[in-house]
Design goal:
- By secondary structure, the protein is α+β, with helices and mostly antiparallel strands.
- The protein has a single domain, classed as 3-Layer(aba) Sandwich (Beta-lactamase), CATH 3.40.710.10.
- It has twelve helices and 13 strands.
- It is globular.
Length: 374
């Protein structure tokens, strides 16, 4: 029997019982005839189980007081813009989980540069475990000859420069993804200019592997993936090391971030100074960039493939405290501490292929605001 049939039968029985016993209050009212108070909205953080990955507590938009009548506008926008998966969590609980076309909750998708967040947190863990210091020169772990710079120049590049996109390596080369030594040449002194140069970031994976003396995937799995119940894998695609996982795994990582590196009492990243620097302006040249995290609400920002600085907030429609993983073709992991929200979007490019932020960010947040604003 369908739920609707059960509901109808229950309603009829309730009416019959009420009519046969008018002097007794029904279960829906107290003796004064006043309906019972609604249950309070839970504000504690929910952590989905590790061993039962299909189990996830939900909460309705009605319970949250959200505007459910605005949801179709959001779904139409997502579908029109090549979306495969979309998730909204409130305090860790699933409010929206929507898949489009043939894509399902079990399917894996590339994070693209949203995966930089994973590497940033893993670097902090490696430092906490004293395998490295982010102030160390990169050459300590990559050895000689990893670039075409003379020794007096290359020794000035640190792990922190890699985390902040301030290595000074030449970003005007033909392929900014190329990690071959001949592609890594001198342009600026480290720490004096910000440019979204992918190759130095990619080499962080080799730095971590060298420092820990472990395979990068194995170290990531041990320190982040398995403890929080993620699945997925970093896969070499050309010069890039791209993480693939389900949308739910990306959402789990979002919960870990909103809890500042803690998963249900288990400390994944204990170093709060590192976490705070990672998710705040890490240098003065692009205020909207931390340690491989994009930041909203700053007075100015820079974008990939550009040397220009723009005035204002990165995503004007989004909350000022939002920080994010933003990847090629509009892979999005939005985290909003003030609202305890995690939002995941996976799919194809909404319009043009951009490496990180795009107009999609502001458009989607306009639609999200119409739902969550009371």
């Amino acid at each position: 029997m369908k739920f609707s049939q059960y509901f109808s039968l229950f309603a009829i029985l309730s009416i019959l019982v009420s009519c046969s016993s008018d002097s007794e209050p029904t279960s829906e009212t107290d003796k004064s005839g006043t309906p019972p108070a609604l249950a309070p909205i839970p504000t504690d953080t929910y952590f989905p189980p590790i061993s039962r990955t299909n189990e996830w507590e939900t909460i309705s938009m009605e319970t949250l007081g959200w505007n459910e009548d605005q949801v179709d506008n959001l779904y139409n926008f997502l579908e029109d813009n090549n979306t495969d998966a979309f998730i909204v969590l409130k305090d860790g609980r699933m409010v929206i989980e929507k898949y489009f076309g043939d894509f399902t909750s079990d399917d894996n998708h590339a994070w693209n540069s949203a995966g930089k967040n994973l590497t940033a947190m893993l670097t902090g863990i490696a430092q906490e475990e004293e395998f490295l210091k982010i102030t160390d020169t990169t050459s300590n772990y990559l050895g000689e000859g990893w670039s075409s710079l003379p020794s007096e120049k290359v020794l000035n590049i640190t792990i922190e420069n890699q985390l902040t996109m301030t290595t000074g390596l030449d970003y005007t080369v033909e392929n900014i993804f190329c990690t071959d030594p001949n592609c890594l040449t001198y342009l600026n002194e480290p720490g004096t200019f910000w440019y979204y140069h992918n190759a130095p970031y990619t080499l962080l994976d080799d730095v971590i592997a060298s420092a820990t003396q472990q395979d990068f995937n194995s170290y990531f799995s041990e320190k982040i993936k398995e403890p929080i119940g993620m699945q997925g894998l970093f896969i070499k695609v050309g010069y890039n090391n791209v993480f693939y996982s389900s949308a739910r795994s990306m959402a789990r990582f979002g919960i870990l971030n909103l809890n500042q590196g803690n998963w249900d009492g288990l400390s994944i990243l204990s170093d709060q100074n590192y976490f705070n620097t990672m998710t705040n302006s890490s240098q003065n040249y692009n205020l909207a960039y931390g340690y491989l995290y994009w930041l909203n609400g700053k007075s100015s920002f820079r974008l990939p493939n550009s040397e220009d600085e723009f005035t204002g907030s990165l995503i004007p429609n989004a909350p000022a405290d939002l920080y994010a993983g933003l990847g090629l073709n509009d892979q999005k992991l939005y985290m909003v501490p003030s609202l305890d929200l995690v939002i995941v979007r996976m799919g194809g490019a909404s319009n043009e292929e951009l490496l990180g932020p795009s107009s999609f960010d502001n458009e989607i947040w306009g639609l999200i605001n119409a739902i969550i604003e009371n």
